[in-house]
Amino acid sequence: MSALARRALVVVATWVGLSLTAGCKAPPGSRPSPEKPAASTGPAPVEARGHERERPLLAFEPGSVERGKQLVGEFECHRCHEGTGLKAPTLDQDCVRCHEQIATDKFKASPAKLAKWKPHIMPYRDVPSLSSMAGRLRPAWVMDYLLHPHDLRPNLVSTMPRLKLSVEQARDIATYLTTSAVAEMPAATAVTRDASQIAHGKQLMVERGCVTCHHMSGAGLAAPAKTDPAPRSLGLAPDLRFARRRTEPGALVRWLLDPTKVKHDSAMPSLALQANDARDLAAFLSFGELSPPTAPPPVPRLPVLERRVTFDEVNERVFAVTCRHCHTNPDAANGDGGPGNTGGFGFKPRKIDFSSYQGIQSGGVDSAGQRVSLFGKTREGLPLLVASLVQRAREDQGDVSDEVRGMPLGLPAVSPEELQLVESWVEQGRGL
User: Fold this and answer.
1) Where are the beta strands (DSSP E) in 122-204?
2) Helix, strand, coil percentages for the chain (3-state, nearest 5)
3) Buried b (16+ CB within 10 A) or exposed e, 153-173
4) 118-132 pLDDT, tens per residue?
5) Which helix (H) or strand (E) holds 425?
């Protein structure tokens, strides 16, 4: 497969509001939970939602706009998102545009290849634009989300990945994205905790059809009907539980009155609301009572299989569909081995190649350029390859490791059965 075709299958969706490349793979089932509770670090979270924890937003001190723009380029946000202020990349670097061309039969490939690729890329065509953040999103929330990504849009398979960002880098990016000329808007409407307004706002959520597209977990409202994959009209709709963290109440009113006046490329239609109705909806979104979220029960790791597991089996079910798109042989892909091999999206080259048995056995390189094995043991005693798959499920619960980055980035953790297959192959000696 050419580098262009291979990159077209790489998933990089919901990144900075995104998902970094991790491999085109719809989830085989529900997302597994970690087998251990999340570690407690920093201030106690005020809310917890299963795979994500909410921290109190810290006071935001603006960083450097110039440095933020430079970092947006270095982390290649424009490969997934419009609205970055950077020039659009060429097609072979534009992940989402490649997906769209495959889905609409415009990509230059044979009909047979397009038919083979389509099932894998259909859930990865929708990515939020980063335009018009000024006056719309809290800079403190943008910074927090960059540092602690979580599942913001439940109708999208992909989520923003955990990138290798420092606090200072996240602050500079947030400053750049939320610093721009703000279009002339109506004066902000005062929104209070008036009980009658909050109650009316909750009523309007149903009457005006908000719950047709949006979840609002913990609010006691019916969720949108679940379909797989979700209709494109629903993909970008965020869980409104997080509206109060993302946006000031007055900005919510402006948004509800006419989304396209606040963000010209908004996917949300105008609801033709009266000012009082917009105010009441904003009051409910900002101050309405939410029940404490319940984390899903832990899913224990399955025992190592007694039957023999071959490389061909684990490759066909896991490596080829989950790992290879970001970790492949650059010699066979016009010099680009993906962010996990030749680098990209802020990651240095690690020379990890999942395109063959020999490539996996040869491992990668560390930050000092020294060759390391994918099967060396972590502090926990797990082989690094297994640990990275286990850690992805733990990250969904807010347990972030300073040693291992969860894989696949920006996508659901592999299923317990897939993890069992990989772990069994490793424990059995990694044979052919």
Assistant:
1) none
2) 40, 5, 60
3) bbbbbbbbbbbebeeebbbbb
4) 887 877 788 899 999
5) helix 416-427
Q: Are residue 139 and residue 239 in the same domain, yes or no? A: no
In a domain, 235, yes or no: yes
pLDDT tens digits, one per residue of 339-357: 888 888 888 888 999 999 9
* Inter-residue contact 173 to 72 (CB < 8 Å): yes
Does 383 reside within a domain? yes
Write the burial class of residue 237 (CB in 10 Å: 0-12 exposed, 13-18 middle, 19+ buried). buried
Cα 98 from chain centre? 18
Cβ atoms of 153 and 14 closer than 8 Å: yes
- Structural element, H or E, at residue 365: strand 364-365
Q: How many whole angstroms separate alpha carbon 133 and alpha carbon 181?
A: 10
301, 423 Cβ separation under 8 angstroms = yes
Contact assessment for residue 20 and residue 345, using Cβ atoms and an 8 Å cutoff: yes
Confidence band, pLDDT 50/70/90 cuts, at residue 20: very low
Q: Is 14 in the same domain as 162?
A: yes
Same-domain check for residues 149 and 206: no
